[in-house]
Design brief:
The protein is built from 6 helices and no strands. The protein has 124 residues and is an all-alpha fold. The protein has one domain. The longest helix is centred in the last third of the chain and has 25 residues. The relative contact order is 0.11.
Amino acid sequence: MITRSTFYQYYFNKSDLTGKLIAEIRCSYEQFLFLRFGKNPQKSIKARESLTHQDRRLALALLKIQTPKHNFRCEMHTLVKNRFLAYASNQDPNLDWDFHADSYAAMALHAGEYYLKKGEISTR
């Protein structure tokens, strides 16, 4: 437990803390996506397994936050969609991949949230 004065030494307010937590998770997820859409996607499986229980709880909590300044779910959707578009456009640049990318991002986020919840429940 930290005191109020200690909290405000490191963060301007709760929104600042939320932004820093989102940035931390987003950074690790960007690394995962780089592996996922890289030359050896099998490495992404090992990277995904390394999510700690604390990271899972944090990601689930951040997925619930929807404020005008912070919307973690929307940020992750955009991140996955853009990474898929970059990957798919390299495979066949003549196709319009936007619908597929949006669908993939929605499915990936839903599946990820499902497995995060399942992992949290099974570790109790």
